[in-house]
Model the fold of this input.
Amino acid sequence: MTVTHLTLAAGDGVAEARILRSAVVGAGFMGRVHAEAARRAGVRVVAALGGSPGGAERAALAVGAERGYPTLEALLSDADIDVLHVCTPNADHAGVARAALEAGLHVVCEKPLATSLEDAQGLVEAAEGRVATVPFVYRFHPMVRELRARLARGEAGVVSTVIGGYLQDWLSRSTDVDWRVDSTIGGPSRAFADIGSHWCDLFEFVTGDRIVRLSAQTAVVQDRPSAANASTEDAAAVHFGTESGILGTLVVSQVAAGRKNRLHLELSGTEASFGFDQEDPERLWVGRREGSQVLLRDPDTLSESAARYALLPAGHAQGYQDCFDAFVADTYRAVGGETPDGLPTFADGLRAVRITDAVLASAAAGGDWIEVTP
Done:
């Protein structure tokens, strides 16, 4: 579906549709994912940013943009765009996003929204009146929407506990090095800010509940002699409580051999319990005293809110790129004046930074319980 917004044709007062145009800053893996999702939404990717004239050309080629620019200033002053996608290393998110907002653009910014709470708060204020989103894309799995709908209908009864984790292994060896392990580039938190934030957003999204206090421990498991400033955590364990009284336990690790991208959570209720695993996203486990069942992603049987994101017939697997495509398409629908349900905004990005700050503060205090600012 082509996404457009309406403008007024000069002189005759007749509204005409114009295809939206985007730019991508950052031409790595996430930049390519953003660009592909924009194209699938019917958006023109007209510009990309590289660090030099040659880098500008390579950046444009990498993301499939029509033109590359050597500086952000040149891109913002010359390119005719509606939305800027920020896919840079973490430390640059706030500066690039703020410049785009000040130029009057809508913004999609990778998480963490910023590496400091002050910068994240400033971006929320600067985004007033603009569409500004953060890709917490696991919200867009159809079975996540199904879980959310069933919890909202009260099918679980009283939810008392939740357990879960987000486990990866791509940094499990001391020789595994990436810009994210450098705290001056990746920020003061790595594993939790990078993937723990996804889990917390997903939990709060499906339950409509908020984490209000937590106790955390973090660990640096691998010494990385070839990496500069490699002081951020490889793993974290968090106990928490919510506004409604749910007790939770979360384990986050980027050094869990054999686990590639396992985000999972299980909510236990008095009438029903529910389990979701991102590595098996076509299914939702439902447990009851009388027996358990596995619900399959089938557009004919899902709730309306979930079926909207079930793009393929049952038995034809959907996955990560489909979630990302749905997130980006909903962002551009918002630019066009719609109000998509569950679209993660800069306010959600700020929320993730608040929780991350609380985790780091608790860990630094030896696991003391910390209140999480709303």
Q: What stands out?
A: The chain has a mean pLDDT of 94. The chain has eleven helices and 17 strands. The chain has two domains: 4-137, 139-315+345-371. Residues 346-364 form the longest helix (19 residues).
